[in-house]
Amino acid sequence: MSAEAANGEEAPVRVTEVAASEALSLLEGEGLDTDVAGLRLFVQQGGCAGLSYGMRFDDEPEPDDAVTEHHGLRIFVDPASQKYIGGSTLDYEAGLQAAGFHVENPNVVSECGCGESFRT
Asked: Known NCBIfam families for this protein (predicted)?
């Protein structure tokens, strides 16, 4: 089942229930209104492979953002980032050595050894 953007198109990213739950908990811990605020997922220049993912909480979306809701979490993606992460899934992984958000991106043709940057 895929989420839809506000304009009826398929959502640029999917979010697992675990990732949404973790992000909502963090949003609430920051005192943000989860009905308006959300998690911004973006792509920026950097890293040894050329591009890297970025995430931050925003109080509200920008006018040209794709805005979707997944398991109660609002996701904001700007138009420039959409072309790099379209079809991706945001997940949360917890392990013995580390825990954090991870983007599974079908557009990636190569990643650096640490998995922090990529090339499409």
From this structure: iron-sulfur cluster assembly accessory protein
Share of the chain above pLDDT 70, in %: 78
Most confident stretch, 39-53, 55-69, 78-92, 94-108: 55-69
How far is residue 15's CA from residue 71's CA, in Å, rounded to a whole number? Answer: 8
How far is residue 61 from each of residues 36, 46, 68, 86, measured CA to CA in Å? 8, 24, 10, 18
Question: What CATH number does the domain containing 36 carry?
Answer: 2.60.300.12
- Whole-prediction pTM: 0.81
- The domain in which residue 17 lies consists of 13-119
Q: Per this entry, what is the length of the chain?
A: 120
Q: Which two tokens mark 87?
A: 């079809």
